[in-house]
Specification:
Length: about 100
């Protein structure tokens, strides 16, 4: 139970960092020309995430050929659709994913 809670907190914090400095209007505005991640970055990127509470977790990001990406943490994954990813130029991107938590 603790591990799932900490995984959830980690995913939530990563998403927070991805959306820092953005508001919902900016992410979904239609005046921006570029959406999705450039095809130059298609592939899988992975690493280890150290946590004092739950030990080391495997995390990875898969950039898909349609410009979307999927974030994997342990057995959980979250997909970010192309329409929710905007380019800020110079290989910087911002993404937004809204979660509804039912308890």
């Amino acid at each position: 139970m603790k591990i799932k809670f900490f995984k959830f907190l980690f995913v939530l914090s990563v998403l927070s960092f991805l959306s820092v400095g953005c508001n919902v209007k900016d992410i979904f505005s239609t005046d921006e020309q570029h959406s999705g991640i450039s095809k130059d970055y298609i592939g899988n990127y992975s690493g280890k995430i150290d946590s004092n509470q739950s030990g080391t977790l495997d995390g990875s990001i898969a950039v898909n050929d349609d410009g979307s990406f999927t974030f994997y943490l342990g057995n959980n994954n979250v997909k970010f659709e192309t329409s929710n990813i905007k380019s800020d130029g110079n290989a910087k991107y911002r993404a937004l994913r809204v979660f509804i938590l039912l308890i």
